[in-house]
Amino acid sequence: MSDARRTDLVRACVALAEDDEEFRAFLALRLREAGFDVLECATGLGLLRLLAARDGEEELEPIDLVISDLRMPGASGIDVLASRGLLVDCPPFILITAFGDAATSERALSLGADAVLDKPFDPDLLVLRAWELVRRWDGPQAGERPWGRGLP
User: Fold this and answer.
1) Angle at 47 between CA 53 and CA 93, to 5 degrees
2) Cis check: omega of the bond before 120, within 30 degrees of 0
3) How deeply is 102 buried, as exposed, middle or buried, from its count of CB atoms within 10 A (0-12, 13-18, 19+)?
4) Phi-psi region of 35 (alpha: psi -120 to 50; beta: other; left: phi over 0)
5) 109-125 pLDDT, tens per residue?
6) Could you tell me which residues come within 8 angstroms of residue 31 by beta carbon, excluding any fewer than 6 positions away?
7) Which residues contact 8 (CB under 8 A, 6 or more apart)?
8) Which of 49, 59, 117, 141 is deepest in the core (most CB within 10 A)?
9) What's the 3-state SS for the chain?
10) Over the stretch 71-103, which tens digit does the pLDDT of each residue have?
11) C-alpha to C-alpha distance for 13 and 17, rounded to whole angstroms
12) What are the two backbone dihedrals, phi and then psi, of residue 39, each rounded to the nearest 5 degrees?
């Protein structure tokens, strides 16, 4: 079955940070087609603000996954990743980069990144990893979400 299949109207929410406007729009479209709600940010600082504003807020849709570029204005993806530990809810994190090397990947993983994807990457791989991470995360309202633990 398609990843976009839903048992109700609730969709997983992804915070996507990418400073390249065209690439961000492309990724957001692909993620939406795969069944995600997508909140877009053009900077690392914007992503930090978004995460802080939604952290622990029961009235707002929780963020189920963060996808962030490495190099962005305001704060890097590594900066965002390092700050994630200050949040009550720490959703899974995928770092994407055109400047990937072993040291960058190692640093990201040591700070808690769940995956590091080097550009160019297959967008289907991003969607696959995104659904894998969202399905296994025990975040806010996990038991109430249709893709939560216990699904086949």
Assistant:
1) 105
2) yes
3) exposed
4) left
5) 989 899 999 988 999 99
6) 14, 16, 38, 67, 126, 127, 130
7) 146
8) 117
9) CCCCCCCCCCCCEEEEECCCHHHHHHHHHHHHHCCCEEEEECCHHHHHHHHHHHCCCCCCCCCCEEEEECCCCCCCHHHHHHHHHHCCCCCCEEEEECCCCHHHHHHHHHCCCCEEEECCCCHHHHHHHHHHHHHHCCCCCHHHCCCCCCCC
10) 998 899 999 988 877 766 788 999 998 877 888
11) 13
12) -105, 120
Residue 124 amino acid letter: D
CA–CA dist 46, 41 (Å, integer): 6
| 44's tokens | 């690392």
Which two structure tokens, joined as six digits, stand for 57? 């807020």
What are 93's two structure tokens?
A: 């994190």
Max Cα–Cα distance, the chain, nearest Å: 42
